[in-house]
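User: Could you check the structure of this?
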Amino acid sequence: MKRFFCLLVCTVLLLSLFGCSGAKRASGSAQQTGNGEVPSLAAPATDLLASGSGGAETEPSTSHHAPSADPTETEAVTTGTPSTEATTDAPETAAPTDAPETAAPTEKPETAAPTEAPTQSTATEPNALEDNLEALRKQIEAQDAICGVIFLGFTDTDAPAFEAGTDAWTSFLKDSDYRDLQFLQEIPDDHVVDAGGTEVYCLIPLSDRTVKDVTGAVMDEDGILTPGGPVLFEDYGNAPFILRCNVSDIVSNVVVTIMTEDAVLMWEPCLSLEDNHVVVPSEGGLLNLTPAN
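Assistant: Sure, the predicted structure tokens are below.
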């Protein structure tokens, strides 16, 4: 029993000595390093006990020294909590590619409202033709002409002749576009000339000192029409007169002569084969008063 007690006392003393010497060694190591490194752990107390007691077996003592500051150790050593390795980042998921844009449906082109078809005028009045001889003569004078002409329309070749005492001329006028013109209705029978044909004209001399005549046309050796036939009409003054002529649409069958104190006009009545407008002499003297269709 005494022997056990002695061993216990020795053990307590050795432990006390070991604690003091360990503290000194730790302080000296800290001063020697001077760089903040933590000294390595002291040798276990069991080694010292073995060397001082002749190999007596004791329980190892736990050292209270500060752990080594190994740079590889993590901060978890000082805090006492195990370090958690950073998890590797999850692979980024590629953003889904944008769905192809769907083209906006094109707007249906607006359909233009159908334009109304122009209505044809049912009026039979000629355009821009005054029912006034004085106004018409002013137009003739303004164009430096000595006579004006209006194409009144076509008649049949076999239609009754425009002869005095018959209603052939008045019947034609009633069916024409010019039936409402008062001065045409007032033309006397002796100023209606019929040379045979399908074309009907009205001629309006400017001056009251005008000699006018209508003579049958004759074609000479050079193909020129000359007034070589019978005289069909002859008058003096500026009273308008009616002329029916031209069996052929290529060659006139009459020559009209209008003569004043200052000028002489000779005209073979003729229509354009293109659009039926009145063909007048290029040198002037005759004004076409026919309204445009």
